[in-house]
Amino acid sequence: MKKIILIAAVFITFSINIFGQSSDAALRAGRDKDTISRDASGKLLTLSATEHATRGEVYMSNRLFPQAREHWTKIIENYSTDLNTMPKALFGTARSYQWERQYEKAVSWFDKLLKDYPMTKEGRDGLAFKGACQVRLSRHWDAAKTYQQYVVMFPSGEKIESAHLNIIDSLREAGKYDDAIDWVNRTRTRFSGMPAEANALQARLRMEIFRGNWEKAVQAADELIGLRKFSGSMTSVDEAFYLKAFALEKWGRKAEAITVYSSIPDSFSSYYSGLATEKLKTLSPQLVRPIASVSSNMTKDYPVMYKAEILRYAKAKKIDGRFVLAIMKQESSFKANAKSPAAARGLLQLVFDTAIKYKNQTGYPNLQPDDLYQPSINIAIGSYYIAELKDEFNGMYEAIAASYNGGEDNAARWLNRSKPKDAGIFASEVGFAETKAYVGKVMNNYRVYRALYTEDLNRR
User: Fold this and answer.
1) Helix axes 195-211, 177-190, angle to 10 degrees
2) Which of 119, 129, 378, 418 is an S-S bond match for 346, by CB 3.0 to 4.6 Å?
3) Max CA-CA distance within the chain?
4) DSSP string covering 313-376
5) What is the pLDDT of residues 358-394, one digit of tens each?
6) Is 80 exceeded by the pLDDT of residue 23?
7) Could you read off the pLDDT of 324-344 as tens digits, one per residue?
8) 157 and 124 in contact (C-beta within 8 Å)?
9) How far apart, in whole angstroms, are the C-alpha atoms of residue 41 and residue 96?
10) How far apart are CA 170 and CA 132, in angstroms?
11) 404, containing H or E segment
12) CA atoms within 13 A on the CB side of 384
């Protein structure tokens, strides 16, 4: 089994590196072609629809959105009847604005897509992303209606489960609590015995905690625990017990809260177990609780790489270097040449449209995408970025990690609906499965690094 896992890990790393190499080569080729595909005034020439689509997708995959839109615009203006490329051009234009957080523009372009091509794959995805943009614009009631439209139009669509769950959260954020509970019940009926049922119950549990309905929160937690259907869902048994204990604590039932917190075994592989341990230190200092311990062989899995660069750049920005290592381990496994399918590059997997914001402050005014493969540049820009996130989220490392993976605006929204501002409550509110798993892994890494090393990255 260990050999199979190792082979799989090597394959995944190999695939990411091959993707990075081919994507970088495609980007360089696309830029070279664009240079010679212009008239004397510098205006892009009209090429075939397929060529514009190909170059547009290369730019999109590398998060160079204005360059991508230049090609999508050519398709829209010159090939409006091409059924192969026109939906892609409209969708790509809308998504590029969404990635740039120009949500009003994104919605208008999604509407153009939905007007003419609603039954295409781009149309289905566009409807879901329109709802996501409305959420970012705090138009929660409109978002709920958009997601309900998806449920009606595409009952077997690729995003049908997330549409149901987004309806629940959108209605909650719109203050339509009874309607949200109704959709919890609808979702449970529609997806009985499936991961979405557990997610719907967890959504209700979060809502009751947000409203301070501690008794109802405990009831929802018990119902969630009683399902015993956590596999494949966005929640876990440790999270359910933590949220139950939290509600009991707030309800004034301290002894019961201590019992439930104690039922979560301490482990470096469970984010909520570490939180439970910290809670018990406060609630019951005299309690003897078995605590996970580090061993010397763990340094192989949690090494200190690029120590000089991390201490130089992270310390200057008052960031714990162990947190930088926790992110680096999760993002690239310390491979300086790593590139993801989302065009994130280098040790800290920085995307170019984020990195370029800090090029002047970090001393790299002529920053190019390939520069992010250089460790010193990557760590310098990454440390500056993490420091900004730390200031934005008042030092809550969970929010920093969520923002790093899922975007600042999403992390800000999840923090806004976290009430009270407890780290574990915030983590439960993270709305993307990938980002939620990422937060747990990074925080587990950080906990181990703190157990193994001092702030100066020396072995304890």
Assistant:
1) 160
2) 378
3) 79
4) HHHHTT--HHHHHHHHHHHHTT-TT-B-TT-EETTTTEEHHHHGGGTTTTT-TT--GGGGGSHH
5) 999 999 999 999 999 999 999 999 999 999 999 999 9
6) no
7) 999 999 999 999 999 888 788
8) yes
9) 26
10) 10
11) helix 397-406
12) 17
Decide if pLDDT at 411 tops 90. yes
Structure tokens at 62: 């590398």
Q: Closest Cα to residue 355, out of 419, 283, 4, 345? A: 345
Residue 22 binned pLDDT confidence (cut-offs 50, 70, 90): low
Half-sphere exposure for 153 (CA within 13 Å, toward CB): 20
Question: What is the rounded distance in angstroms from the CA atom of residue 339 to the CA atom of residue 372?
Answer: 10
Pairing between β-strand 344-345 and β-strand 350-351 as defined by DSSP bridges: antiparallel
Q: Two tokens at 324?
A: 């930088």
Share of the chain above pLDDT 70, in %: 95
Q: Is 6's pLDDT higher than 70? A: no
**Tens-place pLDDT, residues 130-142:** 999 999 999 999 9
Residue 381 structure tokens: 């820009």
> Does residue 18 register a pLDDT over 60?
no
Kindly tell me if the per-residue pLDDT of 322 is higher than 80: yes
How far apart CA 403 and CA 354 sit, in angstroms, is: 12
Comparing C-alpha atoms, which of 172, 133, 210 is closest to residue 409? 133
Q: Are 455 and 427 in contact (CB under 8 A)?
A: no
Region of 65 on the Ramachandran plot (φ > 0 left; ψ -120 to 50 alpha; else beta): alpha
Residue with tokens 């997601």: 147
The DSSP output letter for 179 is H
Q: Is the dihedral of CA 358, 360, 366, 371 positive or negative?
A: negative
Structure tokens given for 294: 């580090």
Average pLDDT over the chain reads 92
For residues 344 and 331, is the Cβ–Cβ distance under 8 A?
yes
Which tokens sit at 131?
Answer: 């709802």
**Tokens representing residue 214 in the block:** 């501690």
CA dist., res. 100 & res. 65, Å (int):
8
In 3D, which of 165, 213, 167, 223 has the Cα closest to residue 419?
A: 213
Note whether 196 and 204 are within 8 A (CB): no
Task: Assign 13 a pLDDT band (cuts: 50, 70, 90).
Answer: very low
